[in-house]
Amino acid sequence: MDCSHVFDFKVKRLIVVFTLFLAFFSVTSPALAQVDTLQAAENSHSEPEGKEKFDIGKFALHHIADSHSWHVIGEHYIHLPVFLYTPGGLVSFNSSDFQSDDEAKVVVEKGGQRFVKMHEKIYYASATPNEHGQYVQLDEKHHASNARPLDLSITKNVCTLLISIVILLAVFLNVANGYKKRKGKSPKGLQSWMEPIILFVRDDIAKPNLGHKYERFMPYLLTVFFFIWFNNMLGLVPFLPGGANLTGNIAVTMILAIATFCLTVFNGNKYYWKHIFAPEVPKLMWIVMIPVEIVGIFTKPIALMIRLFANITAGHILMLSLICLIFVFNNLWVSAASIPFAMFIGAIELMVAFIQAFIFTILSALFIGMAIEEHH
Question: Which residues contact 210 (CB under 8 A, 6 or more apart)?
C-alpha cells in the first residue's frame, strides 16, 4: 500500500513526540541520578574520616552493570530470583536472601552449599571470613578468587529483555492488525505513528543495500532496528521499567552481531565466496588478499558488536560522571555547571539511541547485501 501522501505529516508528528521525550528525559534522568548520588554521598560523609574519596569510576560502573535486584527508589529494591547450576544440581533462591549485601559478608546456605555475592557476582563461600569479614579469598588486585557456580539468574538485564519483547510484540501485533483491518486505507492510531519509521527502514536502509531481494530480509532488519532503539530508550528512563543497560551489555550486542554474521555467511552466493578465496588479482597477491578477506569476515560483526556497546556505555558513564563532580569537589556550586552539561549529554543520548539503531541496521544490510550481490 502506498502511503507516501501521509509520510511527511507523520514524520513531523514524530519530531514533535521526539522533542517532548527529549525535554522529559533530559530533566528526569539527571535529577533522579542526582538524588541517588546524593544518598551515596551522605552515607559516605556519615562514616569516619580517613575514608577514601568519592570514586566516580566505581559509582558509574556500579550503575551501568547488571544486577540481581532492581533499584526502585531510596532503599527500595525489587529482588529477583537466583538460579545457580552447581555440581550438586540446580539451586534456586531469591536475591533478598543476600540482604542487599554486595561485599561477600552475608552467606546464603541452599542445597547444602554456601554462597556469597560480591560486586554482583555469586561465589562459593569460604569456610572462614578474611580480615575484612568477607567470605572470599582476595588476590593481589583485591578480586575474589573463589570458584563460581554457573549463574542462570533472572537479572535486571534479563527482565528488561523480556519487557522489551513484550513491548515489541504488543506494538507490532497492533500495527499488523491495523494493516489487515484497514487494507487500502490511510493508517490510523499506532499504525500511523510506526509506518513512517517502517517505511524509513524499507526505503533508506533495505532497498539501497539489498536491491530487489530486500523483502526477504526486512523482518530481520525491522526486528533488530526496533529492538535496539526501544532498549536504548528504556536504558535512558531512570525508573521502572527502565534503568537497565541492556544494549550496553557486550553479551547482548555480541548475539546481535552473530545474527548478522550468520545471515551474511549462510546467504553468501558463489561470487561472494569467490571474491574471498579467489579474488580477481594476480595470484601472487593471494598470499596477502585471502587472509585479509577471511579476517574481514569476522572483523565486520566484531565492529558491530563493539560500536553499539561502546557508544551506549560511554554515554551513560559520561552523564553519571558529570553529576558526580558535585560530590568529588564537595561543593554545591559545581552543580551550576555539571547539571546543565549532564542534561545536554542526556539530550544527545536520545539522538544516539536512534542513530546507533540506524547504524547497526544499515551496516547489517550492507554486509548482507555484499554477500548476496549478483555478479555484473
Answer: 216, 217, 365, 368, 369, 372
